């Protein structure tokens, strides 16, 4: 039985990895580890289908170490013992352990000494946040790398490579992939390369050649049917997905309820719940923010409900959230404030932390002047005492410039300005 295209096209060298150039590009950390042959155990985390297994496979291929794949949820301690025995014989084994967040304590305790000795180089893969869902014992023995969602351009590159590869890919088939179909495979899979490759293979194998041209022509309708997702438009430029998301956010920002619902409906009809949920969360805090913080919380609740429900029912809580955001007062003051602070930090406007704010919880701190003169606000009336918190060179800086578009930020503005007056008087 032939393995799926996504499996066959896994890279065997670090240079073949699609995307993730912040980790595997020339001069980046994993690239340098491979080049120096100084591998250490690591955890790769990110959404499904973006290259965790591919990177592990490429590392193994580049270093020529034995490569084994197990699943923490399915494979037993006995399976780990077999890998450990192989490592004793061959010297080093790279172990790709999928769903590492589900590694139980018995398996973990068995693995730890082998990680310490370096006989097993662990590459754990997870879609969960490792800082929350993976035990400290494993985390302390690994480096943690976050993988980024693949772009449509990344996926197009991988699809073109698969169509050209006559050994592992689809190069032996006379395929004509129309531009609009290519754009749909690249964008509708939301950065999941595995889905895009396997969708392309299904389209090629299930489409008969044209009797005249002898070509297997993959059109947009075939791509839509294969992925079970409709395209946003027929223009084939690959930007329609991003255009709809952009129009969706701008409609909410502009308080046009009907337009926002229209663009949301396009995303729902295309089955793109992930993009819709993510964009709603961004909009809530970027465009409504301080003007109506309770609405932001309700959007989080609606997105959580939508994720649990799935489509088509997910449309109901999302519609309520969209309507509320459209009709809510707007403010981007929070985003502007943090961007202003970041601009100062990035341009080198930092300054020394005042000595009385520095950590004083160690022996000898007082001799260094750390923490001396700090006044504990909870000891004062109203739990506030004016004192300097910003570095000297920024002591008069104001990043937050409140707006008055909603009752919440109006109240925050009054409190902020009162506190600023007290701080300046000090």
From TrEMBL:
Ordered alphabetically, the record's keywords are: ATP-binding, Nucleotide-binding
A Gene Ontology biological process noted in the UniProt record is: DNA-templated DNA replication
Q: Does the keyword Heme apply?
A: no
**Superkingdom, according to UniProt?**
Bacteria
Q: Which Gene Ontology molecular function entries are recorded, alphabetically?
A: ATP binding; ATP hydrolysis activity; DNA binding; enzyme activator activity; single-stranded DNA helicase activity
Q: Where is the AAA+ ATPase domain?
A: 38-150
* Entry similarity comment: Belongs to the AAA ATPase family. RarA/MGS1/WRNIP1 subfamily.
Tell me what this protein is called: Replication-associated recombination protein A
Species source reads Agrilactobacillus composti DSM 18527 = JCM 14202
């Amino acid at each position: 039985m032939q393995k799926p295209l996504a499996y066959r096209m896994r890279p065997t060298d670090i240079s073949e990895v699609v995307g993730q150039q912040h980790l595997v590009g020339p001069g980046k950390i994993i690239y340098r580890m491979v080049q120096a042959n100084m591998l250490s155990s690591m955890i790769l985390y990110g959404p499904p289908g973006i290259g965790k297994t591919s990177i592990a496979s490429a590392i193994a291929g580049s270093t020529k170490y034995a490569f084994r794949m197990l699943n923490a949820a399915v494979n037993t301690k006995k399976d780990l013992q077999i890998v450990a025995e192989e490592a004793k014989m061959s010297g080093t084994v790279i172990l790709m352990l999928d769903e590492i967040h589900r590694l139980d304590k018995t398996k973990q305790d068995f693995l730890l000494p082998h990680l310490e000795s370096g006989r097993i180089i662990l590459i754990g893969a997870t879609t969960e946040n490792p800082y929350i869902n993976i035990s400290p014992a494993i985390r302390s023995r690994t480096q943690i790398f976050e993988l980024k969602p693949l772009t449509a351009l990344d996926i197009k590159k991988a699809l073109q490579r698969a169509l050209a590869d006559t050994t592992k890919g689809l190069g032996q088939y006379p395929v004509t992939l129309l531009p609009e179909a290519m754009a749909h495979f690249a964008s509708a899979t939301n950065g999941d390369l595995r889905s895009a490759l396997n969708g392309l293979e299904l389209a090629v194998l299930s489409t008969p050649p044209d009797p005249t041209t002898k070509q297997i022509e993959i059109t947009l309708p075939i791509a839509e049917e294969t992925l079970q997702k409709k395209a946003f438009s027929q223009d084939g430029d690959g930007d329609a997905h991003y255009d709809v998301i952009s129009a969706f956010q701008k409609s909410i920002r502009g308080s046009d309820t009907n337009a926002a619902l229209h663009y949301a409906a396009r995303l729902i009809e295309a089955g793109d719940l992930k993009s819709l949920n993510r964009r709603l969360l961004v909009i809530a805090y970027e465009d409504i923010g301080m003007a109506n913080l309770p609405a932001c919380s309700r959007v989080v609740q609606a997105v959580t409900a939508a994720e649990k429900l799935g489509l088509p029912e997910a449309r109901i809580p999302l519609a309520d959230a969209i309507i509320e955001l459209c009709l809510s007062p707007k403010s981007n003051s929070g985003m502007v404030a943090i961007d202003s602070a970041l601009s100062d930090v990035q341009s080198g406007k930092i300054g020394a932390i005042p000595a009385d704010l520095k950590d004083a919880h160690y022996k000898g701190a007082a001799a260094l002047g750390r923490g001396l003169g700090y006044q504990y606000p909870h000891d004062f009336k109203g739990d506030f005492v004016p004192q300097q918190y910003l570095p000297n060179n920024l002591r008069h800086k104001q990043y937050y410039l409140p707006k008055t578009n909603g009752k919440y930020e109006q109240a925050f503005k009054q409190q902020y300005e009162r506190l600023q007056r007290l701080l300046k008087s000090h």
